[in-house]
């Protein structure tokens, strides 16, 4: 069944990667509410199906963006696409460069950079054919505010940012907009994955801070996606009020006098 916007206009299909939790799941819900047919992709199919179950007409398909054959299979099941949200990615570890774990670096580059490349390349024809396509890459402030302990993630996100900029230039004159969303501190499963399930260590990242939620970022994505066709939101940085940049954070209550 085709989704329709608030005024009965069909908005088309939106694909969201990494949609089994956090920003991706919240984005899928927001785009479905806006009137898109959503196709959700992620590795954890049981959780993905649970998200899709609450969204009329949504489809949940297995997707591992680090696996070229998985991406090919996924894209082959998406005959049309107006919006692609490249959200899959993440960070692993905090080792300094001198102690860098190359396997972690490789995995971060596979998910954040090559995953974005594979998905964009796989659905670009459909995005162009839609007549009003939009690629949204969920990047990070880490792309332009590198911090000690985050070298692998910093470099991966910097590369994803460069990919986004070049894609926008390459598509100039074609009916596809390209948007980069750069969140600061967001409390999702990001830190839990980074610290391999250490919940206490993950919680300490947000100690004394009210971080963004996945829904906060999803709302920003939804706003960018629903701008008129002639308006491109090149880049949108979103942070909690207690964060000035990637490494300057106020922990504690705000001064209100």
Give structural attributes:
257 residues; alpha/beta; two-stranded antiparallel sheet
Layout: helices, strands, pairs:
Blueprint: E1 13-17, H1 22-34, E2 37-42, H2 45-53, E3 59-62, H3 68-76, E4 83-86, H4 102-129, E5 133-138, H5 151-170, E6 176-183, H6 190-194, H7 199-204, H8 214-225, E7 235-238, E8 243-245, E9 248-249
Parallel strand pairs: 1-2, 1-4, 2-3, 4-5, 5-6, 6-7
Antiparallel strand pairs: 8-9
Helix pairs in contact: 1-8, 3-4, 4-5
Describe this structure in words.
The chain is 40% helix and 16% strand. It is of the alpha/beta class and 257 residues long. Strands 3-2-1-4-5-6-7 form a seven-stranded parallel β-sheet, sandwiched between helices.
Provide the low-confidence segments as ranges. Answer: none
Beta strand count: 9
Rg value: 18 Å
| 3D shape | globular
The proportion of strand residues reads: 15-25%
